[in-house]
């Protein structure tokens, strides 16, 4: 059975580094294959995973009529398979730019439909969403097992995280569990920050420390796999993976 994980958060929260780290951790644990989905029109997940996208969902959506003798649904299914970038342990699917003058609706509808079909063939699906809340109102993040809300450990970051959780509840999205990830933590969070955390509905809390190694990798354009496995950052990402893969409690 596939586990579908959606990663959300404010711009600059580090959601892409958390998403790519989680994918790498799944591969290290042989929880494969993984479908990595870059659902951000300003895609960067490919850099963190050291691979290049082929065609994007947006480009496929804009293509003209299918070849003679092939229906449009059949053609779209074929093209989506061609758009998958195969890598060791994971495949990458990139959403791409919006359609027309800022309308993402058709692209997101296609992405959502294809994810439902493609995702069944993977151990895990990790979707790196765009920053902000638009993906929630467009229902790109829908019917997921785990929502990872990534936030910087400050009042601004936590206020944004709370809006993500509140918006997902208001949209009545089918989300199994919500994990709050405080990213870029330096030392122990203050009592004020912990109080802010308690105000956000969530099932689990994970702390990911600020990492000099991650900063250097990003500065050089290197993938997260270049970070030494003994780094504290990886230990924290491993704890995030533990929380994601935690079995659902038995229903009585």
Summarize the structure.
With 252 residues, this protein is an alpha/beta fold. 40% of the residues lie in helices and 21% in strands.
Proportion of beta-strand residues:
15-25%
Compressed to H and E, one letter per element, the order equals EHEHHHEEHEHEHEHEHH
Structural class: alpha/beta
Shape assignment: globular
Largest sheet: 8 strands, mixed
- Uncertain spans, ≥5 residues at pLDDT below 50? none
Mean pLDDT: 85
Strand segment tally = 8
Strand order of the largest sheet: 3-4-2-5-1-6-7-8
Helical run tally: 10
Q: How large, in whole angstroms, is the Cα Rg? A: 18 Å
End-to-end Cα distance: 22 Å
Instruction: Tell me the helix content.
Output: 40-55%
Oligomer: single chain
Labels describing this entry:
252 residues, alpha/beta, 40% helix
Explain the overall architecture.
With about 250 residues, the protein is an alpha/beta fold. About 40% of the residues lie in helices and about 20% in strands. It has helices at about 15-30, 45-50, 55-60, 70-85, 105-120, 135, 155-170, 190-200, 210-220, 230-245, and strands at about 5-10, 35-40, 85, 90-95, 125-130, 145-150, 175-185, 205-210. It has an 8-stranded mixed beta sheet with strand order 3-4-2-5-1-6-7-8.
């Amino acid at each position: 059975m596939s586990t579908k994980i959606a990663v959300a958060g404010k711009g600059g929260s580090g959601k892409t580094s958390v998403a790519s780290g989680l994918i790498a951790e799944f591969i290290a644990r042989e929880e494969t294959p993984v479908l990595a989905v870059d659902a951000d029109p300003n895609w960067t997940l490919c850099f963190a995973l050291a691979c290049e996208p082929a065609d994007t969902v947006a480009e496929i959506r804009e293509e003209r009529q299918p070849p003679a003798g092939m229906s449009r649904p059949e053609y779209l299914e074929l093209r989506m398979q061609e758009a998958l970038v195969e890598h060791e342990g994971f495949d990458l699917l990139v959403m791409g730019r919006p359609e027309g003058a800022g309308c993402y609706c058709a692209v997101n509808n296609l992405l959502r439909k294809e994810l439902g079909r493609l995702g069944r063939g993977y151990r895990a699906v990790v979707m790196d969403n765009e920053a902000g809340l638009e993906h929630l109102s467009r229902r790109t993040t829908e019917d997921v097992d785990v929502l990872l809300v990534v936030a910087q450990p400050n009042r601004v970051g936590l206020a944004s995280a709370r809006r993500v959780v509140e918006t997902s509840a208001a949209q009545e999205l089918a989300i199994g569990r919500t994990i709050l990830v405080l990213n870029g933590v330096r030392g122990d969070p203050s009592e004020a920050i912990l109080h802010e955390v308690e105000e956000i509905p969530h099932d689990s809390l994970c702390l990911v420390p600020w990492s000099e190694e991650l900063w250097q990798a990003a500065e050089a354009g290197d993938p997260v796999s270049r970070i030494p496995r003994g780094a504290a950052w990886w230990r924290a990402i491993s704890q995030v993976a533990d929380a994601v893969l935690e079995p659902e409690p038995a229903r009585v």
